């Protein structure tokens, strides 16, 4: 079976987890602090705060920005449902806008049309690791005085070109960027997330919110020769990462450049092998973007049926997934009045499929998948 994805975990990660277990401190502690510093250094962010997932990262980001009932947050429906749910958790209203069909990313022109006096933030997703049009979105957010939050769940290791230099996603381009370390992403800690920002006040709020609003963290009290009483300053959450996860994450971070290079090689090979197929649309990488290729999504010609293609591939032991979901079609969102056209989002969900991609995927398997897709298109 060729799986849709496969994390690359080995002895280094297992040894690191073992050491954390045996250290006597397994909740959020020195491994989490080191992981945060190393992540911040890698992406060139002044601050990085580890949390339990990207879903909690997005919620904490919105909460720290003071977004709540009555506020509108513009985002893509065409995303994993956690993007929209994070807005709902805060009691705010998601306003869904359409994507650019070539990159599957939010279209800045549609964002502009959706801005109202109630708009407080934009959550822009770097979908499947492909950087969204940050230059346009940052300018737009600044001009309208709204916060830009990057849902970078899939985008660890992706880059954009800014004034001629390549910068990693996570260097604060927007106000906040949120990452995921779920096993479907490029690096993993089992579950886990990271929030980067350049704003020290926001970082302070993230740290309060992830740990019950506690004024003095347990690590500090534990290490102090004097008795310290803590306060609980705000209604916070328990969104901590454990030291076991962070120890694994530090090893994954060391592998990140290599993992991205290998994924880029797989994507380049798919592009070569599938480039001249009549009616098959390959994902576009803008010249200012370098994807980490968290997923490789192809849009099928109208004449072929998505489900039959997926079934035929599964029958020869190739796993695929349908295109990214649309949140506005799911029960919690279906009854909302959607003000904006979401045609490209729906077409992408109904006509695209994700092909297997992972760092350790062999040349033979890439060729086998490409050949099977070719047979389906030419059937
Ligand atoms: C995976 C994903 C999330 C959720 O990440 P978790 O760490 O699993 O909570 C959010 N947004 C997008 C775009 C994702 O792909």
Automatic annotation (TrEMBL):
InterPro entries: DegT/StrS_aminotransferase (IPR000653), PyrdxlP-dep_Trfase (IPR015424), PyrdxlP-dep_Trfase_major (IPR015421), PyrdxlP-dep_Trfase_small (IPR015422). GO terms for molecular function: transaminase activity. Pfam families: DegT_DnrJ_EryC1 (PF01041). Keywords: Aminotransferase, Pyridoxal phosphate, Transferase. Belongs to the DegT/DnrJ/EryC1 family. This is DegT/DnrJ/EryC1/StrS family aminotransferase. It comes from Bradyrhizobium agreste. The lineage of its organism: Bacteria, Pseudomonadati, Pseudomonadota, Alphaproteobacteria, Hyphomicrobiales.
